[in-house]
Amino acid sequence: MGLGLSVLIAMKATAWMLLYLFFSRFGFTVLAIPLLYASLISWLVSIASHPSIDLPMLLGKNPDGTFPILSTIMFSPYLYFNRAFSMARRFLTGDEPYSQICEGLYVGGWPASPRLLPPGNPAIIDCTSEFPRIKEFKGHSYLCVPTWDTRAPQPRQIESAVKWACRKRARNQPVYVHCAYVKVHTEVRTYFNYSSFF
Question: I need a labelling partner for 35 at 20 to 30 A (CA). Which of 17, 93, 166, 168 fits?
Answer without folding.
Answer: 93
